[in-house]
Structure prediction request, 99 residues.
Amino acid sequence: MPALPAKHYAAELQRQLRSLLGHEQIITQAYGRHLLIKRLDDEEPTVVARLTELGRNRYGAAFRSQSGRWEPLPGAGTLDEMAQVIVTLLQPYLQPDNY
Prediction:
């Protein structure tokens, strides 16, 4: 049954990111213990970052570098805290191409 909570957390993260960024060009997807954060582009969504569940309501973050490797971001925290961290550190990468 872990898929249902993960989908719920992905939807909540998407809502928070869209609110913080001020646009709707962000989608999230539950993928195992990860919540993938994607920017909507003209062709297909681009994975920019992910949150990984470290424990009950505790997440770590990473971003996808140009080489495709996952690079860790500093800190760990709740979904709310990590949404703020993602926006603060990666805002330029989370803007749609037409901005």
Remarks:
- Strands lie at 26-31, 34-39, 46-55, 58-64, 70-77.
- The mean pLDDT is 91.
